[in-house]
Amino acid sequence: MQFTQFNLIDPRFDTLFRLAKEVTPYLAGEVAPVRSDGIALGHNEAMFSQELYQALAKNYPEAGNVYWLTRTWELLCWQPIFLGFISVYQMQAIPPMERIAQYKLPMFTTGFSFPGGRWETGEHAELIEKVAIKLQQLFTAYREQMGEWTRIRPGFTNHLIADGVLENVARQRLLFPEMRDEQVMAEAKLWLNAFNLSHDHLHSYRWDQTQDHLVMIRQTCCQAHRCDDKNWCGNCPKTPENKTLVVYS
């Protein structure tokens, strides 16, 4: 007697895709093998990132290497970080993040896929540790492959990762408005610990007297103001108004 083996897809993928598109339609996901034009571990890392960098350089020649490199790195990381936070805070389970594939327009990453795979559960702090390990594996591969065609230091990427993580911690207040400042700080410490990042990054959280709660000010400048058609970001560390905000403690 022969049995047909069915490859069942975990229904939590559909939930993740729905929640992701509620954040932004650019976070469009599917269960599928990585396409030839995508980036995934062991697939196309150097070419994918170099094409992004070259497109940015072509369209923003005035901005210079510091912008092209910063923007390329942030484009590689934003989808995995957002999905990691959705998984931990809204689903209390994490997909095989190390198997994610990403896709792009000429100057923007949008869309992702998973080939299926096993989800993991656990206590809240344990989930943060697990997803951080998977994201670190992913980001280390991205950086090493970018290092084949440009100079990109771990210290540089770690600062940008810290900013991305701490922005997303603060963003959880949109979903959980009852979160107090102390809870935001406690969650931020869990994430920094999981990524082996210094607690000095907590200085990103400043006290905004007007809003009567902490706000997140980046420690790194994204350099977008170097582009002719862009301005300073609202949480830029270089603007005079943000420089006057006191570090939250």
UniProtKB/TrEMBL annotation:
InterPro entries: FCR-like. It comes from the Bacteria. This is Siderophore ferric iron reductase. It comes from Vibrio tritonius. The lineage of its organism: Bacteria, Pseudomonadati, Pseudomonadota, Gammaproteobacteria, Vibrionales.
